[in-house]
Amino acid sequence: MSDTTDDGNDWIDILGSGDLTKRTVSYDGDTDDVSNRPTKGQKVKIRLTSVTNGEAHPDKSENKEFIIGDNDVPYFLELVLPMMHLTEVCRIRSSSKFDDERQENLNDHAEYEVHLIDVQDVPPLKDWTVEARIEAGAAKKMRGNKLFDAKKYDSAILSFRKGVKYLTEEIEEGPEALKELASTCLTNLAAVYLKISNFSEVISCCEGALLLNTTNIKAFYRKAKAFRAMKKYTEASESIQQLLTIDPQNHAGRMLQKDIQKEIDRSKKAEKELFKKMVSALDGSSKDVQKIVQDKERKDFEEKEAAREARNTRILWGLLGLLIFGILASTFYKIREIYADNQPGSVIDDSREL
Fold first, then answer.
1. DSSP 262-311
2. Considering the entire predicted model, what is its pTM?
3. Distance between CA 15 and CA 79 in Å, rounded?
4. DSSP category for residue 9
5. Which positions ≥6 away from 96 have C-beta within 8 Å?
6. Pick from 38, 131, 35: which is nearest to 79 by CA?
7. pLDDT tens, 4-44?
8. Contact criterion met (CB below 8 Å) for 175 and 131
9. Measured distance CA(261)–CA(274) in Å, rounded
10. At residue 282, does pLDDT exceed 70?
11. Dihedral pair phi/psi, residue 32, rounded to 5°
């Protein structure tokens, strides 16, 4: 999508939303040749000039040197520069959503003129000098601080982490200045995580900062605040005590120590109240518990008695049955004998044998 201006040059709508547009002002080279376009990881030098009402203001210009993709400049530059040619001059219109140095207002567009002056390859990090590392780390710290003040917390995190990378990675042992700067970047990163309530990351950053600088007071302080927010009062108290061991008169540390102690006391009081309620509840329910036990015992006894009575009844009926059977059998045999005696021929006549 493009919009033609009065001078015949087109504004290119980079994202198709109208939030970011670009127009070439001057370039004498071959626009089809992409070999002189900067890419991510390369270092560029530009001149950035503010534009109002279509007019550039040289008094509001500044030179910037940075690595593309390092989050050192407003995001609209990161998006537009890979589309520019070396020596090209262009105009850029960007909404505040792509300019993290301005407060976001989606209806607000700012215009700039950008001149791409130089493009250089960046050597591998392992080949950087200590001075180059410190320079890059300091730039990342300053950039992160600016983003933090603007409440651009995600971008601030990226800057501080990149600073830590330049200061600590692919180097065996750096000088104290390098370690102290890296420690500061980590404590500033912890401050960002405090703002977004990511307390585990706060603690991790502070512990890393203290490995680099054992007397980093801000690291102890922010670590204590994170533990306090997590209601880990013992750890919070230990951290603030370590701070006060280094700087006994530290006002912020002493105030935080008082607040932590108040919360410890409040927590202990709440635990005591809860224990009292539990004991009271047990005392109040003891009679109910006793009644439940008694009812259970009575029910078990009644069931046992019923079973015993049923067993005795079965035995009694069994004996009665045997008795009746015996009487009937005896009576049957007696009747049979009487019947046999009364039959003819039942008396023996032995006179014939005399």
1. HHHHHHHHHHHHHHHHHHHHHHHHHHHHHHHHHHHHHHHHHHHHHHHHHH
2. 0.70
3. 10
4. P
5. 102, 103, 104, 105, 106, 108, 109, 110
6. 38
7. 444 446 899 999 999 999 999 999 999 899 999 999 999 99
8. no
9. 20
10. no
11. -85, -10
